[in-house]
């Protein structure tokens, strides 16, 4: 009886229907909003504002069911941490209460499957890999004669296996995060049901095999080394086996991402282009040292910031990210401070360049990026998940822009 009442209360409204109902009586105020599967309640009880979900309240206080149904504004006791992963509980209750009526029916048309595959590849990470490899490949170039067909063929042979390995890493993470993504990223194809787990597994196995085979076929030890590092650390980050699943430990998670994005991509691909494509002796340049150091800061920021909008699902499934442990606001301003520190160092290094063009582009470019960062950061609402997610994508845009500036550091 209680389950039937809860089902009728939460799922009676159509998907994407928004309804607000305010009722003021004494010291009690109700503000409910239904968006698809989720109902959120804000109640003022004895001068204290509590946030919650009717379904969660029914689970926590079944003995108070009559009070909850008859007088929904009366929230008698807040559960721990207020708003805590109630989305996943609603999803679980929906699956139990409506097993024969799936909420989302996957489309089988070609365009729908291509769109699902596009979302599965996490395109913003592929763009970062593509731009990063192009930028790093330009660092060993000293004269126009270096821009030969051999050089461009070497870049192509670097891009193909690297992008395939990128798809492996993000795809494997989705395979092991299906339940978490139903809370944090419900639009991803596995969480949404556009792909079955078997299809996702087939994609991951195929792209990883192709990537490693290409690395072996191209006979470049630095390239193969970079691919193996990405494969091993990407697997350790996501796979749920003893001593693995490093994403559950914040320091190990940041280290994985930093080693792949900042060290392997910068150093291994640079040596590959300089020594095995251009045929020059290995020599680290000023631009490479600057780019590697700068990207260590930037990649650490991305690794920290990506967990800020995902605290609900991470907390519920035991992912102890820094955002879960320290709080979203502290991690947000830590990331902003790290970026400003990196931009300040870049301006100083640019000012020390003996080349006027390099000096002007480096100083002006980083000042513009830092100013844009500050203007966006001071206006953001940390509690708004959509706003934080949008800001996270803005940081990726700054990441792309930095790769355009690195070759000018001379």
Please summarize what this structure is.
With 410 residues, the protein is an alpha+beta fold. 65% of the residues lie in helices and 7% in strands.
Percent strand = 5-15%
Whole-Å distance between the termini?
A: 73 Å
What's the β-strand tally?
A: 4
Low-confidence segments, given as residue ranges, are 1-51, 61-91, 93-102
Q: What is the structural class?
A: alpha+beta
- Total of domains: 2
Task: Output the CATH class name of the largest domain.
Answer: Mainly Alpha
Shape: globular
Specify the helix fraction band: 55-70%
* SSE run: HEEEEHHHHHHHHHHHHHHHHH
Rg computed from alpha carbons, rounded to a whole number of angstroms = 25 Å
CATH domain fold name of the largest domain: Farnesyl Diphosphate Synthase
Count of helical regions: 18
What's the mean pLDDT score?
A: 80
The oligomeric state is single chain
At CATH level 2, the architecture of the largest domain is Orthogonal Bundle
Biggest β-sheet: strands ordered side by side in the sheet:
1-2-3-4
